[in-house]
Amino acid sequence: MVHTDQYQGKLVLVVGLAKSGYAAARLLHMLGATVIVNDGKSIDDNPQAQELMEQGVEVICGSHPLSLLDRPLDFIIKNPGIPYSNELLVEAEKKNIPILTEIELAYQISEADIIAITGSNGKTTTTTLITEMLKNSGRTPQIAGNIGVVACEVAEQATMDDIIVMELSSFQLMGTDEFRPTISVLLNLFDAHLDYHGSKQNYVAAKARIQAKQEESDYLVYNASDDLVKDIAEKSHATKIGFSTTEVLPDGLDVVDGFVRYRSKPIIATSDIMLPGSHNIENILGAIGASILAGATLTQIQFVLKTFGGVEHRLQFVKELNGRLVYNDSKATNILATSKALEAFDKPVILLAGGLDRGNSFDSLIPSLQGVKAVITYGETKDRIAETVRKTDIPTLELVSTLTEAVKVAYRESTEGDVLLLSPACASWDQYKTFEERGHAFIQAISELPK
User: Mainly localized where (predicted)?
Assistant: First the structure.
């Protein structure tokens, strides 16, 4: 950790605890800041707040009183999950109080170089690929960020012999100021989180912050086939490395004659890549580009691509069961993610889908349903998904209440050579607290099927 005195004596308000807020408050307190913690949960149900209070941190729980802004705050650290529409944050912006996320704090204290990855889809897969590719490279990769590991905690422990591989959401990037990764990766941009950002323009602007402070000595690895990404890259001061699955890029990463290439040099045959799905080739190209720039060996890159079967809950291969291939894509919480998953297979698919009902139609899923032989839908959205399926020629449609029931029906409707795919196209919150919990429930239900 860089031992900085820039926070000494600063008055900082940390809004929202959870893992990132707790870590930021603890770190700032250790660095000599005067920290006030404000969390919506009551103090009685908040062990993190109680622990901080025992360390001498001022804690105000149960509401977000505007009177907090009467103090001469130097800045606010905001939990990414709290929207900017929160009244306290709205008033803070009016007072021109800087609102940051702990990502900025992580950058300021990190001795290690940072590789930062963002995009609408594929962040976790790409982040994990880079981390695996950098093993045996001479520096130890440390995974952090939106993937579930608090960035400032990792930065606190990292040394110059490490390299931090950081997955970043638009929520996290929106709260950065001087953040400057050595290598940034921008995968793709689709409509997402518009309820949080208010408009697509704001969402794209948040994502663009990943490279906003980069200079020529830094690198931007970007999707040259995505127009929104290209627009950001054209304005970037970083050294640019493009990738594309549809264009030939002699100075970048591309796919030609069945080979993934870097600067026209073949890296690996696409037939040797274990990770399924054409969309994952883009993630792989981004990962290869960042990894080579960071010092990964060709041998390690090839080994990872030949053996890596996917991130847990993201098109994760579970097992072969009596001739059926079982995949867990519980992280597919929107229609676009499920479309990408369906397009990954050239075998007949039994699709299990359903979850939280947000009132939207699923008709945009229709073009991706061509290879589906049966849909088993469950949960709050089962009727809405069924409406869409009835507009296709899919021969089998079953509506059930729970995911466990859906697994039993899906297996019953399947034959050898089929793919059993959980790709819900919905959030999990009608029946499960998280998509991870849903994925584990799916795997458990699969394990209980007859062998």
Answer: cytoplasm
For all residues of the chain together, what is the average pLDDT? 94
Residue numbers in the known binding site are 119-125
Tens of pLDDT, residue by residue over 158-169, are 999 999 999 999
Half-sphere exposure of 150 (CA within 13 A, CB side): 20
What is the structure's pLDDT at 420? 97
Alpha helices in 35-158 (DSSP H): 47-54, 87-94, 102-109, 123-133, 151-157
**pLDDT at res. 276:** 80
Annotated binding-site positions for ATP: 119-125
H or E, element range at 397: strand 396-399
Q: What is the C-alpha separation between 248 and 354, in angstroms, rounded?
A: 39
Report residue 87: phi and psi, to 5°: -55, -40
pTM of the model: 0.81
Q: Is the pLDDT of residue 349 over 80?
A: yes
The structural domains of the chain, ordered by start, are: 11-100 (3.40.50.720), 103-307 (3.40.1190.10), 316-447 (3.90.190.20)
Q: Which residues pair with 240 in a beta bridge?
A: 220
CA dist list (Å): 236 to 186, 194, 209, 255, 263: 12, 24, 10, 25, 21
Phi, psi angle pair for 198, to nearest 5°: 90, -30
Strands (E), 106-203: 113-118, 140-145, 162-167, 183-186
Instruction: Please state which of the ranges 156-160, 204-208, 214-218, 339-343 shows the lowest mean pLDDT.
Output: 339-343
Report whether pLDDT(267) > 90.
Answer: yes
- Sheet containing 372-378: order of strands: 316-321, 324-328, 419-422, 349-354, 372-378, 396-399
Q: List the beta bridge partners of residue 140.
A: 162
Residues 6+ apart with CB under 8 A from 166: 103, 106, 114, 115, 116, 117, 127, 143, 144, 145, 151, 181
What's residue 289's pLDDT? 98
Element (H, E) at 317: strand 316-321
Are 170 and 135 in contact, with CB atoms under 8 Å apart? no
Q: Residue range 99-126: average pLDDT?
A: 95
